[in-house]
Amino acid sequence: MSNKETKTDVILIGAGIMSATLGTLLKELAPEWEITVYEKLARAGEESSNEWNNAGTGHAALCELNYTVEKPDGTVDISKAIKINEQFQVSMQFWSYLVNSKLIQNPQDFIMPLPHMSMVQGEENISFLKKRFEAMANNPLFKGMEFSDDHKKLMEWIPLIMQGRPADEHIAATKIDSGTDVNFGALTRILFDHLQTKNVDIQYKHSVENLKRTSDGSWELKVKNVDTGLVERKTAKFVFIGGGGGSLHLLQKSGIPEGKHIGGFPVSGIFMVCKNPDVIEQQHAKVYGKAKVGAPPMSVPHLDTRYIENKKSLLFGPFAGFSPKFLKAGSMFDLVTSVKPNNVLTMLAAGAKEMSLTKYLIQQVLLSKEQRMEELREFIPNAKAEDWDLVVAGQRVQVIKDTEVGGKGTLQFGTEVITAADGSIAALLGASPGASTAVTVMLEILEKCFPNHIDEWEPKIKEMVPSYGTALMDNPELLEEIHRSTAEVLALSKKEPSLADFSNGETEQLPETV
């Protein structure tokens, strides 16, 4: 054991997309600041941000039906979809800035153009989808969205899904060509490679065991080398906890009041991955359906074209599972040890409220492969079991907290940022839309935690994100310019990527199969 103690300006815990984004922003805004990153795994982007653990949908609310809710009067509320789309536009602008500034190269290594579609069956669902389309189609954020319930048109859009269906089946879809597939694992690694050139100290295989306040208001972290067991202490003025599901334990150890009365419930996922190239080539879109009753939003079924390991892939899922681990590389005791005196009542209240979720998870865990194939055949009627393997996806920890609207023990399905009153520490919890909105979330952290610097930083922020502080929906000309420029810079103008688009020859590790 070592008692070595050093100081730095900023510590980022976890080498995922959130820390990568925050570190990159800070190096542009305050290049003189010293930044240290601690990651307990061997490289960046291996947990929640990994391409096999992340849906890869550039979440712009183009196809996710859970972001648009039908109200009692029959109208469809698209306010959440508008918010998420605006946030994704912020990410696109920032990535474009990095490419234009030659801070990162080859955008095709992490982002590809891909149509986003919503598909439903049955007259009631078709009525909802049509009302959703009508509410969105005239909004400039969703320009270009199409609706069809015509089998001939749908055969053009999604031939793999339409083959083998009866001619009188009630089915409809919306389609928008401005969607994207984002490899957040690749993007994370690209950003950390960039940060290393900016003298950011990145310590892999280092686990943050504890943290505490010092007398001057800084934070002292106890950090263990995973290989040697040696311990060092590092002090920083600001700490960001971006450790995926592992963030909750560290937030609790910080002792800040804002972290009390918060719990977490882990949900794991399993995808089916197609191994037949002929089947894969017939699908070129992300097609989202409707979640089953009682299912968490992260379990919305989708047939998902992806670009992973320099090739086109096709996934279906996710099927929910349960593990008490908060991370794939976590401990079986994660859930138990997260229960504290200050959140036990919150956790118990959530357990009583979420019986339907518990029942759903049990049903999902007990599914056989053939039962999963039957769900896949709701999307692909002619699907063959021999063409598909099961792979374990990532762990997500849904936040449980007390809210005014939902009461005690309310399960939250979004992304939550917890910050100390003095702005010296911030933690990111939760799940979807997560990575797609990373830039917006990190800018909000900068505003909350560095209010004395925001006026000084604002010109540079607007250089990186021209729409900063502006509602794009209310500025169609600016939106049009941003759509045009980001599509050009990120090479999103053409519709069908080819293998030549990939410049990175690195082969990623295959996911765990079950």
Question: Roughly what fraction of the amino acids lie in strands?
Answer: 25-35%
Give a count of the beta strands, DSSP E runs of length 2 or more.
Answer: 21
Helix share bin: 25-40%
The best one-word shape is globular
Q: What would CATH call the class?
A: Alpha Beta
Uncertain residue ranges = 502-509
The largest sheet is: 9 strands, mixed
Give the neighbour order of strands across the main sheet: 7-8-6-15-16-17-14-18-19
Give the N-to-C terminal Cα separation.
Answer: 39 Å
How many domains comprise the coordinates? 1
Instruction: Average the pLDDT over all residues and give the rounded result.
Output: 91
| CATH architectural label | 3-Layer(bba) Sandwich
Radius of gyration, in angstroms, nearest whole number: 23 Å
CATH topological fold name: FAD/NAD(P)-binding domain
